[in-house]
Design brief:
five-stranded mixed sheet; Cobalt-precorrin-4 Transmethylase, domain 1; Methyltransferase, Cobalt-precorrin-4 Transmethylase, Domain 2; five-stranded parallel sheet; alpha/beta
Length: 227
């Protein structure tokens, strides 16, 4: 029996109209749709995709326990179990479509499962989506880069400070939990910063200046700084 394929499908940043035609087609063509979280209907990826694919609730929804933690042992165990759950379906010749926010190649949860599944001998495919920072730049109505500017994408959830000294454009992703530090470092580096919170999702807020960004902004707060 031919084994199934595990697809990592990016559903974009939040607006269902920003889902690609390919993402919609892959979801419609397959019956097993996987999500991060034990209750699929509660995941952000489900809420986005269900608006573009009305038949999604009638699919086989596979919730995978992938906790938000930095504990390496917990993460390793959870990812291994999730990969084994997907692999059990692939071994029966059934495809599994894992939905992930934004783009499937940028800080995606599926990346870890992909590696494990490939090590098990399974075939995987990535279906890219619109990255959150591209959607945020469009929402702010500003270009990310011009002429020969350098674009730097930085995971702002890191505990350590980041180097913001070089000229160009900086994307500081998921800044919410470390917003106070990131704002101070951006100001010290002379960055002109704008931001979007929950881009394309309910509760979206647009900040034209760094001074407008509240200290309690949410996890999905993305900053774009220019120098």
């Amino acid at each position: 029996m031919e084994k199934g394929i595990a697809y990592g499908v990016g559903v974009g940043p939040g607006d269902p109209e920003l889902m690609t035609l390919k993402a919609v087609r892959i979801i419609r063509e397959n019956e097993i749709i996987a999500f991060p979280g034990t209750v699929p209907e509660e995941s952000a990826a489900y809420r986005i995709a269900a608006q573009a694919v009305p038949e999604l609730p009638n699919k086989i929804l596979l919730g995978l326990n992938l906790p938000m933690t930095r504990d390496p042992e917990v993460l390793t165990d959870a990812r291994q179990k999730a990969a084994e759950t997907i692999a059990a379906h692939l071994d029966r010749g059934r495809n599994v479509v894992f939905l992930t926010l934004g783009d499937s190649t940028i800080y995606s949860t599926f990346t870890y499962l992909q590696t494990l599944l490939q090590d098990m001998g399974h075939r995987t495919e990535l279906v890219n989506g619109i990255p959150s920072f591209c959607a945020a730049a469009a929402r702010l109505n500003v270009p990310l880069t011009e002429d020969r500017e350098t674009l730097r994408v930085i995971p702002a959830w890191n505990e350590e400070s980041v180097n913001l000294e070089a000229p160009g454009t900086y994307v500081l992703m998921k800044s919410g939990k470390h917003l106070s530090r990131v704002k101070k470092e951006s100001a010290a580096a002379g960055l002109s910063v704008q931001g979007v919170e929950n881009c394309g999702m309910p509760g979206e807020r647009v900040y034209e200046k760094m001074e407008e960004i509240p200290e309690n902004a949410g996890y999905f707060t993305l900053l774009i700084g220019k120098k």
